[in-house]
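User: Could you check the structure of this?
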Amino acid sequence: MNTFRNYISVAALALALSLTGCSVPGTASSTGQAGTTVSGTQSAVTLASTEEDTHFDSDDLTWDPAKEVAVTLGDGATTVAAGSTSDAVKAAGNTVTISAAGTYRLSGSLSDGQVVIAAGEEDVVRIILDGANISSSTGSPLVVQSANEAIVYLEDGSTNAIEDAAGYADQGTYAPNAALYSMADLTIAGNGSLTVNGRYNDGIVSKDGLVLAAGNVSVDAADDGIRGKDYTVLLDGAYTVTAGGDGVKADNDADEGRGWLLVSGGALTVKAGDDGVKAFSQLTVTGGTVTVAESEEGLEAAHIAVSGGTVNVTANDDGVNAAGGSSSTAQGGGQGGGMGGGMGGGDSVGDYSVDISGGEVTINSEGDGLDSNGNASISGGTVVVNGPSNDGNGALDVNGELAVSGGTVAAAGSAGMAVTPGTSSTQSGAQVTLATAVPAGTTIQLADSSGQAVATFVTSKQTASLVFSSAAITAGEQYTVYTGGTAQVTAGLGEGSLDGAQQQGTVTAGEYTAARGPGGRP
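Assistant: Sure, the predicted structure tokens are below.
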């Protein structure tokens, strides 16, 4: 064990936190938890104060190796080496209970057992998994019943596994329901690997705050994959989640300023039977990579902000959805969102928002692509939407105002419910409505009056409408629409040539036409 290495890891994380910031639009006027403020129409989550907002601090990953207690797990033969807190470890049969603060290094295996942390409310308990495999046939194999904070550290180069029972003996309201279950704040760190198989319900759960600081972690869960309550934060590491329910979430819906989720680094890959990445209040991406490969709705929260990183979403319903409640009861969802000029057409404008100021966002959805039951703004970054082919949904669906002031936007899909930038937009754009929908793989290009291609987009599915906005588009100028030619694109956008392309008509930048919804109203 190298204490200096742990210190460097913390220093790197602290530096990342101190250099990053973001803001999440809202409408309430109040002060939430420490470092989180809501004022007028802006609610800010300042990453420089993440250590104030969460339980995570620079002491979490630094300890004295001489004070570690080595616990070698074995069926009916668990041994505890002598150490400063070895008296706090009791093994009874295949149940190992840790009752005091300290650092405990676990290795070996329990084929049908349980590790329980039952420490004091001020105790910080650090569990180093160093080649540990723990399974249970009756419940959760790793439970934090009580502590101030539990840290699960994955030793460098180690491979670890946790698997719970398919059915739990205790199914009470407050009983554990995940393979790794914590009633206290929980941090996962270290550069080792961990496989979590949640056969009963969830994979990893904290009933308080959850910080994923590092690790190579794979979670397979019958219901939710990774669930924090007050907050869920991904700072670094590679997390792969396959879930029958929601993939990764923060679900505190009772306490003001809680129920938020942040990705500031690392790589998160999700395949979910319901929502991919979800927060009750705020979902923020400032760095790292978020890939939702399968979902009903990809990203969902009342307020969604992307200021950096890479987000790729595939969804059977809405791709990025600013709404409240579950996907089955969320408002909007393509219902009557057919007004042009950035308005959703008849739907109420709620306290919801999508704010994209940087990063790269790519959406492939069968429902609405980028959907807000309130307002939406795009001021930077790149947004590519491969929206629905049916006219009951749109690539963009914003009940309030869609304000575009920067970045690059390409939103393709059906024409029946198309939403375009609103009147408050300071960056112009062009709306292309094709006489006949074109198939996947079709190159659509816009050329200026000199014949120079200023926009090249390649469809990934059947497309009848394209809304495009970038700094290359000048308000009031006329652009010629072509299909065909050659293209070199990434995520659908790139550069192209008009050689062999066919002219389809012209559009004037900044002139948007109202779409017609299923009922035929503009």
